[in-house]
Amino acid sequence: MNGRAKVHSLQKRLDAAFARAIASSSDLEVQSDYAKYLCVLVSGFLENAITELIVYYAQNRSAPEVSNFVEKQLDHWTNPNTEKIAQLFGQFSSDWFKVITSQLVDEKKDCINSLVSLRHKIAHGESVGTSLSQIKKYYKTVQDVVEFLSDIVDPRSPTSQIRF
Fold first, then answer.
1. pTM (2 decimals)?
2. Cα separation of 54 and 48, whole Å?
3. CB-based burial, 16-42: b 16+ in 10 Å, e otherwise
4. CATH class of domain segment(s) 3-153
5. Per-residue pLDDT reduced to its tens digit, 105-153
6. Among residues 117, 56, 59, 121, which one has the least CA distance to residue 83?
7. Are 97 and 86 in contact (CB under 8 A)?
8. DSSP assignments along 21-43, one per residue
9. What is the DSSP string of 75-86?
């Protein structure tokens, strides 16, 4: 299974969780609880999708020993804010770093960084306020960012252009 296929599999599970959350209750407090849960899942999706893409890239571009090393290094890679994403990709290519830092700006940057920060607060038991609509917005941005990163490491065709 290629990087995109693995990401798609992760995304399908998350889409199903969103569908259940939206259908389950009109109670705003319950929806807020679902939003917190989905925040953690969306942040995890971003982390796992990036890991899958990088591992796939390493498996297809390097010796098994190098690929194994990359995979083990990513075991410790968490909380993927935009700076950490750019740094990770920059370790593979300075061009990747440049294109990522030029594209993950403004609303995209704020959205990713807010999502990861919110997940951190939720995971550590802090009181936070969020809504399903806010997390859906974050998820849409995460999907766009993951697609953009997929185009970098796993292009659809040799002639595909990186666009965002």
1. 0.88
2. 10
3. ebbeebeeeeeeeeebeebbbebbbbb
4. mainly alpha
5. 999 999 999 999 999 999 999 999 899 999 999 999 999 999 999 999 9
6. 117
7. yes
8. HHHH---HHHHHHHHHHHHHHHH
9. TT-----HHHHH
In 62-131, which ranges are continuous DSSP H helix? 64-74, 82-90, 94-103, 106-123
Summarize pLDDT for 18-69 with one digit per residue, the tens. Answer: 898 888 777 888 888 999 999 999 999 999 999 999 999 999 999 999 999 9
CB 73 within 8 A of CB 53: no
What single-letter DSSP state applies at residue 154? S
Q: Which amino acid is at 103?
A: Q
Domain boundaries, the chain: 3-153
**Residue at token pair 């917005």:** 137
